[in-house]
Design a protein that fits this description.
Elements: H1 2-31, H2 56-75, H3 80-94, H4 103-117, H5 122-143, H6 147-162, H7 167-172, H8 181-195, H9 199-217, H10 227-242, H11 252-257, H12 259-271, E1 292-297, E2 320-323, H13 324-331, H14 340-353, E3 359-364, E4 371-373
Antiparallel strand pairs: 1-2, 1-3, 3-4
Helix pairs in contact: 1-2, 1-4, 1-5, 1-10, 2-3, 3-4, 5-8, 5-12, 8-9, 9-10
Keywords: Membrane, Transmembrane, Transmembrane helix
Transmembrane segments: 16-33, 53-76, 125-142, 149-170, 176-195, 202-222, 228-247, 259-278
C-alpha cells in the first residue's frame, strides 16, 4: 500500500510538471508568435538549404497545431500519443528555422521526450528532471565565469542600468569583480542540488534566484528579453514540483540505463566551450560571451526603419545600422543563436535580399572590440 501511494504521488508530480510546462509553453509561443511564422522581416534561416522552399502556410499550420496540442495537454488527460504528436510538430517546426532553437524550447523538448520515453515510469521522469536541472544550473554558472559577463551583464546591465550606479562608485568600491559571486553561487547550488540531502531547501534558494532575475529584467525592471520572463516562471514551478518530495539517490544502474541523457546534458555541453556544440543547448545564458552581428547599410531601407540603431553607433561608424539581436528582440521576441555558422547564413541572406544597396555585415565583440567582416 505504501509503494502504491508513492507511485501515485510521483504520477501526480509528472502530471503537474507536464501541465505547468504546457501552460507556460503556450503563453511563450503566443507571445513570440512571429518566431513561428514567416510573415515577418527577420530572416527565416533553415539549417538545410532545401528547406527554404517550404511554403509559409506549413509554418503556420505547425504553429497552430502546437497551440492546439498544448491546450489539449493542459485541459485533457495526458496521453502518450498526444505528447508524441506535440513533440513531432515542434521538431518539424524547429527544423524549418534556426531562430526557433531557443534554450527554453530545447528544455521543453527535453522534458517532453523524457516523459514520452518513460511514460509508465514516473519515478524515472522525476529523477531525470532532477539531473537535468543540475545540468542547467551547472553549465549556466560555468559559462558566466568570464570577464565579458562581469563587463556586459554585471556592470552594464545590473550595476549601471538597473541600480543606476556611476562608474566612479563602481571603481571606488571595487564592485566589478563582486559579480563573480553570481556564477560561483550558481555553481555551488548546482553541486548542492546534486549532492545534498536537503534538495528542497536548495530548490528554494534557486527559486529566489529566478525571482531576482525577474525583478532585474522583468516588466518592473529593465523590461528586457520579455520571452524569458515566462521561462523563469516555468523554472520556479518545475523546482516546486520536482522537489516537493525527497529525491532518491542516483544509482549506477540508473545512470547506465539513461546514459544517453547524461551524455546530452553533461558531456556535450562541455564541447560548447570549444565551439563544437550549440551554446543554447548548453545553457550559455547572459554570459556576455560571443559576437554580436551588425548590418551596415549605405542607405536607409524603409521596411527596416523601426529596427535601425541610433545614428551614434560606433560599429558602422555612425552610419545606418541594425543590431541583429535588438532587431530579433523587437520583432520576434526571440534572440539569434550566437553561432557563427548561423550568422554566416543570415549575412548571405541579407546580402542577397538587399543586393541593390551597399551592405556591410560585421561581427563585433563588445568586450575585445574586435571586428570581423562577413
Amino acid at each position: 500500500m505504501y509503494k502504491r501511494n508513492i507511485l501515485a504521488s510521483e504520477k501526480q508530480q509528472v502530471t503537474y510538471l507536464i501541465k505547468a510546462v504546457a501552460f507556460f509553453w503556450l503563453i511563450t509561443k503566443i507571445w513570440s508568435y512571429k518566431t513561428w511564422i514567416t510573415d515577418r522581416m527577420y530572416p527565416v534561416i533553415p539549417p538545410l538549404e532545401f528547406l527554404q522552399y517550404i511554403p509559409g502556410f506549413l509554418h503556420e499550420f505547425l504553429f497552430g497545431f502546437s497551440l492546439l496540442a498544448l491546450l489539449m495537454v493542459l485541459f485533457l488527460k495526458t496521453s502518450r500519443w498526444l505528447l508524441i504528436s506535440l513533440f513531432l510538430s515542434e521538431l518539424v517546426s524547429c527544423s524549418l528555422d534556426t531562430v526557433r532553437w531557443q534554450p527554453w524550447e530545447y528544455m521543453y523538448m527535453c522534458i517532453l521526450l523524457v516523459t514520452i520515453i518513460n511514460f509508465h515510469k514516473p519515478k524515472s521522469i522525476v529523477l531525470l528532471m532532477h539531473m537535468f536541472l543540475v545540468s542547467v544550473y551547472l553549465f549556466s554558472g560555468l559559462h558566466k565565469l568570464n570577464r565579458s559577463f562581469l563587463s556586459l551583464a554585471w556592470m552594464n546591465m545590473i550595476l549601471i542600468d538597473f541600480l543606476g550606479l556611476s562608474m566612479d562608485i563602481i571603481l571606488k568600491y571595487k564592485l566589478f569583480f563582486v559579480g563573480l559571486i553570481i556564477p560561483i553561487v550558481e555553481l555551488f547550488l548546482a553541486i548542492l542540488l546534486l549532492l545534498s540531502k536537503s534538495k528542497k531547501k536548495i530548490s528554494y534558494l534557486l527559486i529566489i534566484t529566478h525571482l531576482v532575475i525577474l525583478i532585474v529584467i522583468g516588466p518592473f525592471g529593465l523590461q528586457h528579453n520579455s520571452v524569458v520572463w515566462f521561462w523563469n516562471l516555468t523554472m520556479i514551478f518545475i523546482l516546486l514540483i520536482i522537489y516537493a518530495k525527497p529525491i532518491e539517490p542516483v544509482t549506477k544502474n540508473f545512470c547506465a540505463l539513461n546514459f544517453y541523457w547524461l551524455i546530452l546534458w553533461f558531456v556535450l555541453p562541455i564541447l560548447s566551450f570549444f565551439g563544437s556544440w550549440y551554446q543554447y543547448f548548453s545553457f550559455n545564458l547572459y554570459s556576455g560571451k560571443g559576437d554580436q552581428m551588425y548590418i551596415c547599410f549605405s542607405e536607409k531601407e524603409e521596411e527596416l526603419k523601426p529596427y535601425f540603431e541610433p545614428e551614434t553607433n560606433i560599429v558602422c561608424k555612425g552610419g545606418k545600422c541594425i543590431n541583429l539581436q535588438n532587431w530579433a528582440l523587437s520583432e520576434i521576441k526571440s534572440v539569434p543563436l550566437p553561432e557563427n555558422e548561423i550568422y554566416t547564413k543570415i549575412a548571405a541572406y541579407m546580402k542577397q535580399k538587399y543586393a541593390h544597396t551597399k551592405l556591410k555585415i560585421i561581427l563585433y565583440n563588445p568586450q575585445t572590440q574586435k571586428r570581423v567582416g562577413l
